Amino acid sequence: MERNFNRKLVLEDGSEYYGYAFGAKVDKVLELVFNTSMVGYQEVISDLTYANQMVVMTYPIIGSYGIIDEDMETKSPVAGGLVVRDYNDNPSNFRYTKTLSEILEENNIPGIWGLDTRKLTRNLRDTGTKKVYITDASTPKEEALKIIETTPIEHDAVQKLSCTKRWYSRTTNPKYNVVIVDCGVKTSLVKSINKSGCNVTVVPYNTSADEILGMHPDGLLLSDGPSDPHDAQVVIDLVKELKGRLPICGVGLGHQIIGLAYGATTSKLKFGHRGSNHPIKDTSTGKIMIQSQNHGYVIDKDSVENTDLTITHINILDGTIEGVECKKDNVFSVQYEPEDILDVKDTQNTYIFGKFINIMKEVKDNA
Fold it and tell me: In 3-state terms, what secondary structure has residue 150?
């Protein structure tokens, strides 16, 4: 150990990475993942899909523009921890209200900076996602490894993070009413649906099919969220009950849930897709888009063959499924995050929300 480091990461493979503390100085066992985005650290730490995960930011300088309250994806950050190469504690931004370290400290989230994030990312890329223990630099490795071995990563995050009662977000001159099942919904997704001309009702993950139908929605949207899709069995059962009865769109975790509801299977990726630069191909047009990604599970390609689903999008980098649909049931989904590019013209975002609107319009006109 050198340079008076006061914190370290101990990975389950026994490797150690020393650095300096920022945020809350607490010890935690988490799942270690990496994100390749150059900007957007505020959206990352407030994205519910990062619950129970420590995120390595591959871009070297983090914190330069501070934290802007109105840009949060949720009211408070939910990521398990943050790892950066160089931390900037002097933001230059007239909109910022606090530093990154301050908001992490307020929410008991540990951060560490000053370590070799390229080496750490290569470890995860080459050998896969791992459990990690963030602790004081003086903690013996053997003690840390024992804690890692005996501390499970929390599951059932959807149940813990979903809203407990319905809430509403309305828009001017609405044409449709959409119910969003909250598996870990982001503010930007709700805003995107509002801007598409829809009033939104966000409901808890365990809302029954009868309750949803009683709201007389024009469409149902399954939000993104954290963890293994199998942990959201109640939502899988909901889709089984509602498919074919109203238009359904799934995003992120919602996409995986739709796959499971139709009899496909899912599996965990070696190191996941997390970043804003993933190329996605539309199988019907051949068009390629660069999209934001944040997921560790995918629908297994071979398992789709014996279902009513067809593959609509694939990931250019590894060939995994990025979109499916069932035309006869008016159900479709995408693995990526279309709301992140709402204000960009001629993008896949127009396709996703435009398609959802068109399906709702067709069903409503033919009712």
Answer: helix
Is 160 exposed, middle or buried, given 0-12, 13-18 or 19+ CB atoms closer than 10 A? Answer: middle
Q: Which whole-number Å values give the CA distances from 296 to 47, 49, 277, 333, in the listed order?
A: 14, 10, 16, 16
Question: By C-alpha distance, which of 142, 217, 211, 222 is closest to 182?
Answer: 222
Map tokens 């390609």 to a residue: 301
For residue range 59-115, what is the model confidence (pLDDT) as tens digits? Answer: 999 999 999 999 999 999 999 999 999 999 999 999 999 999 999 999 999 999 999
Q: What is the pLDDT of residues 192-249, one digit of tens each?
A: 999 999 999 999 999 999 999 999 999 999 999 998 999 999 999 999 999 999 999 9
Per DSSP, which regions of 142-265 are E strands? 167-169, 176-182, 198-204, 219-222, 248-251
Domains of the chain (ranges; CATH) run 7-150 (3.50.30.20), 157-365 (3.40.50.880)
CB 53 within 8 A of CB 130: no
Rounded to 5 degrees, φ, ψ at 62 are -125, 140
Distances (CA, A) of 173 to 9, 19, 197, 208: 52, 53, 7, 29
